[in-house]
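Try it yourself: sequence plus manganese (II) ion, in.
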Amino acid sequence: MSFASSLIISPNVEISPSIFGFLDSVRDGSQILDSSRFFSRNRAANLMNKKQKRVNHSHSIELKYPILCQGGYGSVIAASMVANPAGEMAVSAEERVYNVVMKQAALVKRQLRTAGELDVKPDIVLPGTLSLLNEAYDRCGEVCAEYAKTFYLGTMLMTPERQKAIWAIYVWCRRTDELVDGPNASHITPSALDRWEARLEDLFQGRPFDMLDAALADTLTKFPVDIQPFKDMIEGMRMDLRKSRYKNFDELYLYCYYVAGTVGLMSVPVMGVAPDSHASTESVYNAALALGIANQLTNILRDVGEDARRGRIYLPQDELAQAGLSDEDIFAGRVTDKWRTFMKNQIKRARLFFDEAEKGVLELNKASRWPVWASLLLYRQILDEIEANDYNNFTKRAYVSKAKKLLALPMAYARSLLSP
Ligand SMILES: CC(C)=CCC/C(C)=C/CC/C(C)=C/CC/C(C)=C/[C@@H]1[C@@H](COP(=O)(O)OP(=O)(O)O)[C@]1(C)CC/C=C(\C)CC/C=C(\C)CCC=C(C)C
Ligand SMILES: [Mn+2]
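Structure, out:
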């Protein structure tokens, strides 16, 4: 991606007067994320395993995302409630995220009941706005094509309404990511993120700030997309500003949910569930969440060296220690047997999340499955490439060749024809 194109989509939140100048219209609405509902202890379930075992939830809840045990990863039971140093019981990231998933699923079900069928609502168009909106959506499509070509191609089978909506969501996510990853990242402060969130709230209330926001505001009138995953993605960016180490997988899981699991939750209401699917809405959302987590874990494993050069280590510190590794080993970038063993386990875990995601793709509307399969197959191949590089993710970038990318498209298409 070129620096220039990155600037074009860079959100115009006030980050530094010297760069963008002061923008009166971006209100300083430091909305505080309502996290109280996250911490409800009444709900817990197993996201990654259909058995969903529940035991006395005031003390311990069995969850089964793949965590490290002596012999590697597996379907290991982990307590979701852990005592913090003060001896208080804290709720695990998995449980917090599960609450969001349940809320999203409930929202879609409610809309299904009231609308009869989850489909596109009619446009209410003021004279002149339609062409502006079309322009806005076209621009979203261009940005998407420039940043994520294969995925963009995959959206070609979707209905025009769904396609445009996914592009608009993509652009909002990309702009949010640009805030902390783009050329102006060093100027981003928590209050700039607060302003970006205030702008999000405005957009959800039908007051978009610019053309690209207007496309998303229009999408919201057509699909039952909730604000929570969007707010949570911004929360992930806040997390990136304040921390560069993750104590354990629970912390890393929450980060992965914020920056990528949220994408799954935003996309499903647009992509739609197949009319002949018998899967529960919750299970489809769980799969969507799993794909986001799998993608982000893969992204992290691919970029270990690059992140370390920025002083960041997105790997569970306790698992590194168990493997006999320290931050210094990562900064030194030596591929040792200890590192290979550690990486094998991390890759195994990421693949478990991809496996979980696969179950849900079949349940999506047929026309929406292609881009999802394409993204799943392509991202999962990055793990194969890390193995092919003999786990040197310090100085070698695991990269899926153009030929393999092209091959993934017909493969994804063939899979999208399979019925649930
Ligand atoms: C069909 C489809 C894939 C739709 C998703 C479209 C969409 C809205 C994508 C937004 C992606 C985005 C810009 C996220 C911002 C945060 C971020 C950058 C996350 C990383 C993406 C990879 O990007 P990249 O390699 O460019 O990363 P760098 O910034 O360069 O480091 C992520 C790794 C996460 C992306 C997560 C997804 C694409 C989740 C996809 C899940 C679904 C679409 C749900 C599918 C449904 C079922 C039932 C499985
Ligand atoms: Mn990024």
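One thing you can check immediately is this: The pocket of manganese (II) ion (ligand 2) is lined by residues 177, 181 (CB under 6 Å).
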